[in-house]
Input
Amino acid sequence: MYKNYQQTPAYQQQKCSYEIYRKQCRYLHISTAKLGHEECEACILLTDQEQLAEHKRLAERAREEYQKDKERQLREDEALYTLDMQKIVCLPRLLQYKQLVFCKRLTVFHHTLAPVGGTTNTKPTISAVWDECTAGRTATEIISMLLKMLRDSPLRAKKHIEIWADNCSSQNKNYFIMGALWSLVNQPNNGHETLTLKYFEPGHTFMAADAVHAAVERKMVATKNVIDTDHFSECVLTATRNTRLIRPAFSDFKNIPYPASQRKLGRDARPRLKELVVIQLRQGSNSAWVKKDFDGEFERFDFLLKKVKRDGLPINDLLREERRGIPQEKYDAIIKDLVPLIEQVDGGNHAWRAGFYHDLVCSDTSVDLAQADDEDPAEDDQ
Output
């Protein structure tokens, strides 16, 4: 779309960057469908041929490492997974009512740990599903879910866990997640010895979790009408074999303190997060162990505050004392515009699900996550 826009007279009169164009499309609620694959923005926009060649080299090297991991034989005490969040789902999804795309709907999140390599259907896919009335998707909320997925699943018994993820700084590559995983691996009576994060090159991140999300989307299409969060959870649970479904309550989302020392992060010689392709947390170590290249050696990265090293990272406090809630305006619109349709669709077979929407709670402090970017900004030192 952006390439086509560049060929129009409007672009010649008022040129803009791809990022501004993307934000304007989002503001106008213009979306596009994926046609089998997505092109990498860097591959489209980079004009410096050396930078483009380096970007493609890094993407190919990460893909080679991922393929090597897929093919290696895992020990019984090892686990290899991919981590990703499905693109937000807006409910209800009613096939016969096309006007729903212009209505305020409930935003639902699906965070996935999908197994890699070997006979993956014998290893559980771990899925967490919640909606914006329960919680959002800030860094602390996403990491709270990752910790719950690791604790409340068969992964809790694995000594060594490797997780492939994209480079999303607000979700997968920040000091909050490093501190939280350091805390988990060093908890008393914890079975983990190492927790390792590996990262794809931005724009080239297709992984096993994406295949799970595609299966969920196909299941939703086959279901035709998906009414509420419980209904969507049924689609997630039945889309693939051997899925472990987690439905968190608001009390599962914790307040995770910032663990990093600004003094240490101010050192010129320390690693930058955007440079890292591997981050490993080890039992008994107060540092992270990192790589800037998959072929390189691990480098010690001392990033924690002294008091965190001494006392640990307190992550037991609730993020909220109650459900997050949705804006009153959105609640009123759902009851007025959507509930009557829910009561009519499929000959009234789903009318009983309308009660789910009546039971949503409102909050003066919550924003509409279908229109606002609820993610934390990227960290300054990326």
User: Anything to note?
Assistant: Strands lie at 78-85, 89-91, 106-115, 125-131, 160-165, 194-199, 243-246, 278-282, 288-291, 299-301. The first strand starts at residue 78 and ends at 85. The chain has one domain: 64-358.
